[in-house]
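Fold it.
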Amino acid sequence: MSAAPVIAVLLAGGRARRMGGGDKALIELAGRPLLAHVIARIRPQVSHLVINANGDPARFAGFGLPVVGDPVEGFAGPLAGILAGLQWAADTHPACSRVVSVATDTPFFPADMVARMAAAIEDAGARMACAASAGRTHPVFGLWPVALRHDLGRALIGEDVRKIDRWTARHALSVVSFPCARIDPFFNINTPDDVALAERHLKEVA
């Protein structure tokens, strides 16, 4: 677990449009929902978890985690989910000063991701951190200070900011690069072919 308590917000609002619709987080990978793989990956790194998704929360009841919807109407993208996580953290766990956001279609993100992001923030004197690999940034995977929830709320609701990069550009951001081994750790599943590739990878590392 990371040195300081961190809450994970699992961004489960994605739709599996290229796989016939429905919740992408509930697509099966090797006999378990994608969300189950993500929970197993992030749980050792954090103190608490919350799912961000709109609609009927009952569809996630089997995971035994709280579910919070976006604080804004319409599909506002991952920034709305990050804001939901920050607000939930402030309301329920005021001693927790940071939230890590995690995409639920990306089952292989690093097992030391949160600790490395926290260390990078301290080393650089930054406010926040996001992940990178293979020369690309992955801002959906970020470590965010709860103290900036009001700033994010103003940007998202008052200024209609939707892109994570537009908001992070206003603050000191540390970009943490992770190596690729057999597979890019931030490989995300969008198609049936991606599911097949992920299942092959799981067999190779078993």
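Residues 78-92 form the longest helix (15 residues).
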